[in-house]
Amino acid sequence: MSDSYQPLGDSAQPPQYGETVPQTSYYDKEVGFGAQPDQFNDPVLSSAPDDLEAGAPAVGAQRSESRFDTTLGLPLGAEAALCYIFGCLTGAFFLICERKNDYVRFHAWQSCITFGIMLLIHLIFIWSIFSLILIAFDLMLIIFLMYMAHAHADALHRFKIPLIGALAEKWVDEE
Q1: What φ, ψ does residue 56 adopt, rounded to 5°?
Q2: Which of 19, 28, 100, 107 has CA atoms 20 to 30 A from the CA of 134?
Q3: In this structure, are residues 81 and 104 in contact, taking their beta carbons and an 8 Å threshold?
Q4: CB 169 within 8 A of CB 106
Q5: Strand locations in 54-162, DSSP E?
Q6: What is the model's pLDDT at position 12?
Q7: Region 5-24 average pLDDT
């Protein structure tokens, strides 16, 4: 090799065999097909806050609490909708597990009250044809309430069942 050899990009000599060198870029800057992570035209990386470097969270960075955060880490709309899927059982589960989010707790209370009342009505009419009609009504109500809880999660709008929703909202506000 001649003494006029210069590596691409830097004027420093290339590393010797067996020498470890920290990686500063994914590819050689001069070649043109590689770039530093902060040079990508990726909207996620380019819009990263100052405390983030190349899309990776800073060590020890604290996230600020928001009204959309949940204890279980599921999306807000999903947690609110899941409060209704098995009636009072999932409502009670989310009342016990979700301590952070009032929107989810409201739907958990509303689920417990609504389907607790429905359970009592089923026990009264257990051997009648009316019970079969109530089961169909229960399924439609579960699907409707799950949809409303999920659809309104972005705006934190609480869909309230008359009387029951007001009671659930009162209990959440008193907590």
Answers
A1: -100, 140
A2: 107
A3: no
A4: yes
A5: none
A6: 58
A7: 57
Q: Rounded distance, CA 56 to CA 49, Å?
A: 10
Q: Whose structure tokens read 């290339």?
A: 14
Hey, CA dihedral for 142, 87, 159, 132, is it positive or negative? positive
- Residue 166 pLDDT more than 80? yes
Amino acid (one-letter) located at 103: Y
Tokens of 72: 């279980």
Find, among 65, 70, 67, 90, the residue nearest to 146 by Cα: 90
How do the domains of the chain map onto residue ranges?
A: 16-56, 76-174
Which amino acid is present at 12?
A: A
- Output the pLDDT for position 7: 53
User: Is 103's pLDDT higher than 50?
Assistant: yes
Q: How far is CA 96 from CA 16, 67, 106, 129, 156, in A?
A: 61, 19, 13, 35, 21
- Residue 13 or residue 133, greater confidence: 133
| Lookup result for tokens 């060198």 | 21
Distance CA 149, CA 165 (A): 12
Please give the Cα distance from 37 to 129 (Å, whole number): 66
Rounded (to 5) percent helix, strand, coil in the chain: 45, 0, 55
What was the pLDDT predicted at 29?
Answer: 46
